[in-house]
Amino acid sequence: DTAVSQTPKYLVTQMGNDKSIKCEQNLGHDTMYWYKQDSKKFLKIMFSYNNKELIINETVPNRFSPKSPDKAHLNLHINSLELGDSAVYFCASSQGGSRGTIYFGEGSWLTVV
Amino acid sequence: DQQVKQNSPSLSVQEGRISILNCDYTNSMFDYFLWYKKYPAEGPTFLISISSIKDKNEDGRFTVFLNKSAKHLSLHIVPSQPGDSAVYFCAASGTSGTYKYIFGTGTRLKVLA
């Protein structure tokens, strides 16, 4: 029973398209995150939500819009995809802000062609 | 500005020997540290953590050491096993409630049989 699940796992799409990645956690955590791992393998935080409220919004183009319909879900919508958006996107969750262990999903491999 | 650094991109160790992975940080506000292990095509999985009130934490074959004055932590794996071959990330977080974990760039460990 996967704790943090995200779909799709692989996504190949053309430049200019709009796509969404969905994430759900069944751990009862109050905080969810989106991280991006780029070609240099650097894991960088994009967004953080606590109890459905946006807490962290790093320097991310506004083509990226997270949406949290409830505490257990945090979806990532990307408009007008660009080649540079190709990366692995990881959803994660934790309890207690930055004091708890953060649990990751398996990642969504996005390739923009 | 890389606040968490893992200066060794890769490390090879013989099976049965000790693996030592290092991590340095620059932000003195960090007070909670974690290590993650990542296999290809999977999300990072939690290994071990340490709070700044301690200088050592042990869990089975894994021990994390924290040197606050040097802003340095290390992960020791003894004895190393081929299944330990993976990329290891260290992560740091600051004052409770900031909802932000900063990750290092990872060290690829290869344990040779």
Short account of what is shown:
Chain A is mainly β. Chain A has strands spanning about 5, 10-15, 20-25, 30-35, 45-50, 55, 65-70, 75-80, 85-95, 105, 110. By secondary structure, chain B is an all-beta fold.
Describe the structure in your own words.
- The complex is a heterodimer of chains A (113) and B (113).
- With 113 residues, chain A is mostly beta strands.
- In chain A, 0% of the residues lie in helices and 56% in strands.
- Chain A has strands at 4-7, 10-13, 19-25, 31-37, 43-50, 53-57, 64-70, 73-78, 87-94, 103-104, 108-112.
- In chain A, strands 2, 4, 5, 6, 9, 10 and 11 form a 7-stranded mixed β-sheet that branches.
- In chain A, a hairpin with a 5-residue loop joins β4 (31-37) and β5 (43-50).
- The model of chain A has no long low-confidence stretch (mean pLDDT 91).
- Chain B is mostly beta strands and 113 residues long.
- Helix content of chain B is 0%, strand content 54%.
- Chain B contains no helices and 11 strands.
- In chain B, the strands form 2 sheets. In chain B, strands 2, 4, 5, 9, 10 and 11 form a 6-stranded mixed β-sheet that branches.
- The radius of gyration of chain B is 13 Å and the shape is globular.
- Chain B starts with a strand and ends with a strand.
- Chain A binds chain B through residues 4, 31, 33, 35, 40-45, 48, 50, 55-56, 90, 92, 94, 96-99, 101-107, and chain B through 32, 34, 36, 41-46, 49, 87, 89, 91, 93-103, 105-106.
Write the topology of this structure.
The complex is a heterodimer of chains A (113) and B (113).
Chain A: E1 4-7, E2 10-13, E3 19-25, E4 31-37, E5 43-50, E6 53-57, E7 64-70, E8 73-78, E9 87-94, E10 103-104, E11 108-112
Parallel strand pairs in A: 2-11
Antiparallel strand pairs in A: 1-3, 3-8, 4-5, 4-9, 5-6, 7-8, 9-10, 9-11
Chain B: E1 4-5, E2 10-14, E3 19-25, E4 32-38, E5 45-51, E6 56-59, E7 62-67, E8 72-77, E9 86-93, E10 101-103, E11 107-112
Parallel strand pairs in B: 2-11
Antiparallel strand pairs in B: 1-3, 3-8, 4-5, 4-9, 6-7, 7-8, 9-10, 9-11
